[in-house]
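Reviewer 2 asked us to include a model.

Predict the structure of this chain.
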Amino acid sequence: MITDRLLVLSGSNDPGSPISGQGPITGNANSTDVLSLATITTAIANNGGARDIGQGENLFMVFTVVAGFGGTGTVDMQIVTDDNDSISSPTVIGSTGAIAVADLPAGAQFVVRIPPLVASLGEQFLAARYVVTSSPTTGTILAQVVEDMQDGRKFYRSGFSV
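Predicted model (structure tokens):
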């Protein structure tokens, strides 16, 4: 998975600094950063013609738990769009669904595909949103947009031979 710090919506993966997550997420929250789809389209247009973000490519939002969650309840990690950068009236376009806090230890990773027709919704801004039930007491999340996801967690039965 190749990452780009300009596509980090929650937390930070700046070079020379430790990776950090947004949080603690103890209540409903929008990501600290938003992605302007118009800005991306304009930047691309200046280098060879306007086109949709990720046109023809699968794009994903990867949610990584940096600091494990404590307390009780659930967290639903969502991909949202809106016509304003304050994300005051979000449209949910993807979601992990509600995940129990007990299932959110440090290192847990969840991947949600960004629908390919995101630009056709007519909304300029893309963000992450966290919808919380009950009362988590700790937990931080790094959310970033990527083109390819990495699943380095493959396990094979013992005694397997080729």
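The chain has one domain: 5-146. The beta strands are 8-10, 29-30, 35-36, 59-71, 74-82, 91-100, 109-114, 125-133, 136-146. We have added this to the supplementary material.
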